[in-house]
Write a structure and sequence with these properties.
- This protein is of the alpha/beta class.
- The chain is about 30% helix and about 25% strand.
- It has a seven-stranded mixed beta sheet, sandwiched between helices.
Length: about 200
């Protein structure tokens, strides 16, 4: 699914809408990640940086958050946001839509919220993310259910079962997590701590 995200003001009104917490449940999503202070966490498809304050607090002053997006205007906006909010443990950078450009075994967790359905070759992308995870690290996909009242067109939505297959094919150990999100699901893929 291709989309033009260059009009930041338009998407800021949507992505940072006051009612988002009511259906996104950011505190619960971050709780599901089970972040340990000091970890390195990636917010892939960060958009306007909605999750960054939550992730920044969770990793603590000695942790790091890497905010990635393929839209330069969004990353410019995120840079302004982290400066304005004095968030000191976040680095924002532009990446290609086909490659997160993360070094092998360099991150502990990757969070992908409302973005997985936009990626052109998800299985290849999942493989790149697995390689970027440290052994025992995890990838979390949060996306819209097929019957959600918001989100992409129904034809562009992906079931949690499909996401699970994609992550399994990339060599991750997968679980669809129990959660209380009214419009979304969460799929976790863990890089095995030891290769078979």
């Amino acid at each position: 699914m291709q989309h033009d995200f260059s009009d930041v003001a338009q998407f800021e009104a949507m992505f940072d809408a006051p009612d988002r917490s009511g259906w996104q449940h950011p505190v619960e999503v971050v709780r599901l990640l089970a972040i340990t202070p000091g970890q390195t966490v990636v917010d892939l498809g960060t958009g306007t940086g909605y999750f960054l304050p939550f992730l920044s607090i969770a990793v603590g002053p000695h942790g790091h958050v890497i905010a990635l997006d393929s839209e330069p205007a969004m990353i410019d906006h995120v840079g302004q946001r982290i400066a304005r909010e004095a968030i000191t443990n976040v680095q924002a950078r532009v990446v290609e839509a086909s490659d997160p450009a993360l070094a092998p075994e360099s991150v502990d967790l990757v969070l992908v919220v409302d973005t997985w359905h936009h990626l052109p070759d998800r299985q290849a992308y999942a493989t790149r993310l697995r390689e970027a995870l440290r052994p025992g690290g995890a990838l979390f996909i949060v996306d819209f259910t097929t019957d959600a009242t918001r989100g992409p067109p129904v034809a562009d939505r992906i079931s949690p079962e499909t996401v699970a297959l994609e992550l399994t094919s990339a060599g991750l150990e997968v679980e669809v997590l129990a959660e209380d999100l009214p419009e979304q699901y969460v799929v976790r893929g863990v890089r095995p701590a030891f290769a078979p």
